[in-house]
Amino acid sequence: MLPFTPETLPSEWVSGLQSGFLPGLQSGFLPGLTNESLTLLLLGVAALVFLWGFERYRTTFSRVEFGLAVAVSLALVSVALAPGIYGAVANALDIESRFLVVQILTNAVFVFLILYLLSQVYANRTLVNDLTRGLTVQQAALTEDAAPDGDSVYVVIPAYNEADTIGAVLESLPETVHDRTVRAVVVSDGSADRTVEAARGYDAIVVDHPLNQGQGGALKTGFEIARRHGAEVVVTMDADGQHPADQLPEIVGPVVRDEADYVLGSRYRGTDQSDNSLTRRGGIRTFTWLINRLAKTDITDCTNGFRAIRGSRLPELTLTEERFSAPELIIESRKNGLRIQEVPVTILEREAGETKKPGLGYAVGLARTIFVTWIR
After folding, report:
1. pLDDT in tens, 310-351
2. Strands 176-177 and 340-347
3. In-domain check, residue 108
4. Is residue 220 domain-resident?
5. Which residues contact 15 (CB under 8 A, 6 or more apart)?
6. Is 158 helix (H, G, I), strand (E, B) or coil?
7. Tens of pLDDT along 200-226?
């Protein structure tokens, strides 16, 4: 004997059974899911997403993609077969509409996927940049004697479309500084002009990035070449003629005398003939103040590219910045215990061409680099 009869059931249940839906069950569905075709469509999409993720795992062993596919598939199945779950979530969160819960969860997943995509783009870009620098370093290994040079000063000069000035810069370099042999390393950062050809007319190691990496990327390539050649001191200079080569003794001296491991030139302790705008000078002062507060340094010119670093200490620095490298070098040196000293230098006006530093974008990039380097 059945426990219930039509006479014992509530009248709304009887009408619900006759129409094919119980009121309590129907209230658990989201709008539109009473449509069987929509339910089948969601189940089909869930199956396709799962199969795609499984195929990606089978062919590329990507567990992350497979996990995302499983998560999306389960979400679609739950919407198709058990939408009442979202009603329970809505009640728990005191949200009136279950459809709103689905929207919130969908947006959260969408944001997560965007962040994941950005991380993948960054990882791929980093991989390409590392491969580019690795291939470029091999250019020096193939054309130069890789045996350690002993007491030597390697002058790393990043250059991007500096064909008009690179020759004069190389010609101005002395043969020795403090009884150390001077070797120039020119890293053309994907130049579209005759920078490489102009540099190869002088006694210098010249390599060329096939893709533009930014000044920070070019410096990392030059640092690696200098390290492989056993450089005692590594100096960085600009390719536009703003850094006078006759001041190399002042830059290199504290390292050679074992007074410092990182020597930074300062136009504000020396002479500034760069003709920078008032806005740019104010920006340099502001960012220098910020670095001094965060890193407990005592410098006056944080963006100056005229510097000397003890070669044996370079591997200790974690350098990830491709473009705005000056603050990263200072903060990393401070964090790793390098003795930092600042010396007065002269910064000249560019001999030719235009600055490669963007206006507002340069300020934003410096701020980002300072913050990221400080917290990591």
Report:
1. 999 999 999 988 888 999 999 999 999 999 999 999 998 866
2. unpaired
3. no
4. yes
5. none
6. strand
7. 999 999 999 998 988 999 999 999 999
